[in-house]
Amino acid sequence: MAKERRKAVLELLQRPANARCADCGAPDPDWASYTLGVFICLSCSGIHRNIPQVSKVKSVRLDAWDDAQVEFMTSRGNHVARAAFESEVPPFYYRPSASDCQLLREQWIRAKYERQEFTHPERQEPYSAGYREGFLWKRGRDNGQFLSRKFVLTEREGALKYFNRSDAKEPKAIMKIEHLNATFQPAKIGHPHGLQVTYLKDNSTRNIFVYHEDGKEMVDWFNALRAARFHYLQVAFPGASDADLVPKLSRNYLQEGYMEKTGPKQTEGFRKRWFTMDDRRLMYFKDPLDAFARGEVFIGSRESGYTVLDGLPPSTQGHHWPHGITIVTPERRFLLACETESEQRAWMEAFRKVVDRPMLPQEYAVEAHFKHKP
Fold it and tell me: Which residue numbers delimit the PH domain (predicted)?
């Protein structure tokens, strides 16, 4: 009987909706919450274990199942559970994938099943009200210390502001929603709730690094920023569908890591720098947590004269790392070197993706700005 019950549960995985984790979309889920009726991956099952008052989990293949549990899983499954627990997810709310950080996946699972935010829209106010203020730990630009700073997000003014003192009248910085991006960077920041916010200041990228000890607070801030971006873009592009706008709300970097670079004459020594590929902007920093980039390179499309070559010119000297990359732009060549072959392959793939993509009309304006930079 036990074998038959397990076989019956395994057969449920053949249903298309059950072929991926109900929470992060990872393929071939091997676990199930037998109180919620969903099939989930090993990683998400660990998060479910932390909310035992809501979810109890079993291995589909290894644990014993009783008749009532099999019957419940048969009547539910991921398709039914999605209709029940995700009926009112706002279009701007970030739905994490298997590759996202633990914090995003955990708060998505808690929001769905524990707090039931997507069946009770009034519980979405922390990130959908159009205004949010609170204190976040922000990394100091010069000394690297994290200090408590007051942040205010106001959709009406189209800005995120922060203040060096809670009683300050004037903000230390005003970040326009139009040019703002937020991405979780726990490893880089050294905190599981670490968020990197970037914005344009005088058309150069500026980074700030923040966190909050409470994971829900941090993810609420992240989704409030996405909501503000969504509402800004709805006004800017009145004919666009939600599906067109959602990918523009926030973006993860295409690639990050250390490479060596040389200067424009290509006779200077190579120096190790931290590189970030953010859409078509390749930025390099002395340190991963620097507020400003040392330099930025615009990478356009093949039709506009941009190419990426494997290796360095034969005459190149002064690089310590063996795996070279040459970026050709209409103005000059940029010579880079990676420490390992796998890093070089990852960078080449990221660069080629960008070069192979035709440029959008607004990207030509960005390119023109780069050409006129001193």
Answer: 129-230, 252-356
Residue 278 has pLDDT above 80, yes or no: yes
Phi first, then psi: what are they for 298, rounded to 5°?
Answer: -85, 130
Q: What are the pLDDT digits (tens) for 25-41?
A: 999 999 999 999 999 99
For residue 23, with 0-12 CB atoms within 10 Å meaning exposed, 13-18 middle and 19 or more buried, which class applies?
Answer: buried
Nearest Cα to Cα of residue 101 among 225, 20, 184: 184
Nearest to 70, CA basis, from 15, 7, 17, 113? 7
Q: Which amino acid is at 251?
A: R
- Residue 347 identity (one-letter amino acid): W
Q: How far is CA 24 from CA 16, 42, 96, 229, 290, in A?
A: 15, 11, 6, 23, 32
Three-state helix/strand/coil letters over 311-372: CCCCCCCCCCCCEEEEEECCCCEEEEEECCHHHHHHHHHHHHHHHCCCCCHHHHHHHHHHHC
Q: To the nearest whole number, what is the mean pLDDT of the chain?
A: 93
pTM exceeding the 0.85 threshold for the entire prediction: yes
Residue 362, Cβ density class (10 Å: 0-12 exposed, 13-18 middle, ≥19 buried): exposed
For the stretch 179-191, pLDDT in tens is 999 999 999 999 9
Mean pLDDT value across residues 35-52: 97
- Our CA angle for 202, 223, 53, nearest 5°, is 155
pLDDT-derived band at 367, boundaries 50, 70, 90? confident
**What SS3 state is found at 67?**
helix
25 torsion bin: left (phi>0), alpha (psi -120 to 50), beta (else): left
What phi and psi, each to the nearest 5 degrees, are found at residue 201?
-125, 115
- The answer, yes or no, to whether residue 373 has pLDDT greater than 60, is no
